Amino acid sequence: MKKLESLQEFFRYTSLNVLGMIGLSCYILADTFFVSKGLGTDGLTALNLAIPIYSFIHGSGLMIGMGGGTKYSILKSQEHHQDANKTFTHAVLLAICFAIIFVLIGFLFSGTIISLFVEQGNVFDMSKTYLQVILLFAPAFLMNNVFLCFVRNDGAPQLSMAAMLGGSFSNIVLDYIFIFPCQMGIFGAVFATGLAPIISMCILSPHFFKKKNQFHFIKSTISLKTITGIFSSGVPSLVTEVSSGIVMIVFNTIILNLEGNVGVAAYGVIANLSLVVMAIYTGIAQGIQPLMSRDYGLNHLDNIYRVLKYALLTMLIISAVIYTTVFFGASSITQIFNSENNAMLQTIAAQGLKLYFIACPFAGFNIILSMYFTSVEHPLPAHIISLLRGFIIIIPMAFLLSTIAKMNGVWSAFPVTELIVAVVGLGCFEWLKHHHYSE
Known about the structure:
It contains 13 helices and no strands. It is an all-alpha fold. The longest helix has 74 residues, at 224-297. The two termini are 29 Å apart. 56% of the residues are buried.
């Protein structure tokens, strides 16, 4: 009976969250599609040069939201309601502080950042516009991530999913309207993306007035311990997102030298599809977090391992479906984004898809395992996994393999890195299981 209840709860939380995360990732995928159709290869290159900053904003929101949500769930299960509310209050204040920093960067340094990667011209102008507007909408992205995480941890995964999907679908509709009928160009694409989290928060807002809502703002002195706790649990989420942005910057630099702007546009197709795939794994991970944090607070270790097993099996099935689809449909997938029928872009991207997505099961394993460590308040292994896959291995691997095998080496860097990190993560898991829980 316990197993059946646990399985039902797992599917309720993860299925809703995976759907929501797929919707959330469609922010950028919709931009990629409509920009490729409306603005061609230059627009696609500009989008890919500016997108990494979105990873920094989204990652900061997830760090605060997931870190605060994890602490909130544990404290709530232990009936420490005052401390739970204190965590929520601090999470919102942290989001405000980060928002101010991003907005200032948007006003003062957008052009400087883009000039590091591209000279003055059409691509520069479009990239600067995209970057500046996305930074000015940072407060909405940050607050939306915080509220989504707390609503999910407050027992309302359906509302969290509805908000993510509502925001994403509005982005897709507005993308089309702004780029085509309104002829607003790259500004239209980024403006539609910026409005999406605002619409998402409007959908979430009824939860704050319901009786079953258990988190509230309270008067509280600033607590360094609470802030440290939020950061400790949330940093792996930040590193995962920020690293994807930094890896995109490194890959863009390498590919620009190997294949020029067309190569960067091809990578844009692969990287943005990868965002959707990683969002599925992140959806599974974020779906199991409230369950594992609650069971950890109640000291129900068997339930934690059961939920983890369900998550890994689900991830393996999804990975098999994704890679089969990518392998046999690489040319068709690339053609969707290749509005100018550029033969070089078609060849580079189709080959890249087949190599890059070999990483699927290993990346999924690493994302879920990292969330497991975070959920049971053992953040150090999660930090190790995030740093290894985000910076320490992937960047030198990209330079090494691109020197050896050119573009095939660039595409292979991702799967090789994820495989190495999966072996390290499994070692951390076994060590923790035998040394900590056996005490």
